[in-house]
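ENTRY TYPE: paired fold submission
RECORD: A
CONTENT: sequence, then structure tokens
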Amino acid sequence: MTNENTLLIVRPANRQAEDLAMCHTAGWQGVAFSPLNIVPLPEQANALKQTLTESDALFWVSPTAVEIAQKLSGSLKTLQTPHIAVGKATYYALKKAGANNIHVNENGNDSEAALTLNIWQTLPESAKIGIIAGENGRSFLQQQLTERGFNVHVCTIYQRQEIPLNWQTFQAAKPRAAWVTSSQQAQLLFAQTPTALTQQVQTLLYFTHHERIRSTLLSCGAQNVFLVKDLQQALNLLNNQ
């Protein structure tokens, strides 16, 4: 039997606090349940500072990239370089960090959406584009910008480490639903699922904010996957069922 008001938060620990608070406000018990941990790479501090100062524009792949960059390099307030955010959450992280001249597509949250921004048309030919990212991220943006003639450099400042899930926590929580924020986490969640719990994991109500993650969940065996704008919309839908 599932708990009617318990939802798994399947995202790295550094991004869980706000989601857990949102669940509480909506009358749900959020349960942190991530198979990934984000680990900064302090040895990249000098490379990061060079990327920040020498690039004609900076592309930020996630709020995590912004937060770790702050810790490794200090304030972003003095940079006059245009900042391009992959989505709204990254935009707000940049604003909080004191960055100026920020560009974001209000209607998207991935590289494809960011590529439609006008900023790319205003940059000089062969401009240096610094992409601030984690290890083993998507190469789509880098490839597209290179094809457009830009000089692209990826500065890797964190890595994602797989961690074992505590399935006793899962069994005690008896969740009804799950909020999943990346394809990699979706894959690891199902890869780590014990055989005895496969049916329970497959039949949860899954919510995600991107079609690519939705497709991954379905391919992994999830039976009920819903595409929403954000976690708040997912909670609203659950409360109205």
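RECORD: B
CONTENT: sequence, then structure tokens
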Amino acid sequence: MYSENTNNWVYKACGDVNRIEAYFSGAAFAPHRHDAYTIGITLEGVQSFDYRGAARHSLPGGMIVLYPDELHDGRAGTDAGFRYRSIYIEPPLIQSALGGKHLPFIEDGISSDKRLFDVVLPLLEAYDQPFETLEYEDALYDLATVLDDISGAEKPIKNFNYHAAKLARQYILERLDQGISMEDLERATGHDRWQLSRDFRAMFGTSPHRYLVMRRLDNARNMLIAGNSMADTAIACDFSDQSHFTRHFKKAFGVTPKQWVNNLGDHRNMSCTNVL
């Protein structure tokens, strides 16, 4: 089982931006994939994970940058366990700065580039304070441009319809409680459904259906944090039943909804002056 150790904890930072600090010993997460960039810094111990067919190991001070929708797990590399901070950033936020270029990809999922450290650090500090809007937007722009520089993605994607992909994304966001087909997206964007599917994946790192499911899961996590039951959350977020909800949740986050709730520790008052 994953994340059953009662000493494990996850602390969610203040504000709406999805940032966590966590500690795990042993196996932390089963293999899973989510449609956001995972960008983090290992604070203590050895953070080990399987990614793109190989075992990776991040030591204290090491940076992790996982590409959207890539299968990965998580575990302690030593008996001492590991502690880390992560921020989860949706590809559309990166694309808003890059405007239709290839999404940046960091080889091996680990980087020691100082330029990256300098732009990631502001995103992972001050967990007891929410971001100001302009502060966050500036930090995202800096992150996107540095990721683009160090990934070697130099040329815009050719023959891709960024505008149609954005229209499809907006259509999905406005109809999370509805069944959506590729025919619906084709009609809403005026763009061939198969070409649109390819464009959406290129621009945002995942398929339209996966994007829809992940936004429903985001809503579900907020409901669970607010104290709603698993069953009520599943129905409210348009999953057919609790079993269906649990299956999708574990595929996306590597733990069941119950395990995720049990690990939450929002009572912790963290200060990053002595940890980063």
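NOTES ON RECORD B: Residues 9-155 form a domain with the Jelly Rolls fold (CATH 2.60.120.280). The CA atoms of residues 27 and 75 lie 4 Å apart.
STATUS: closed
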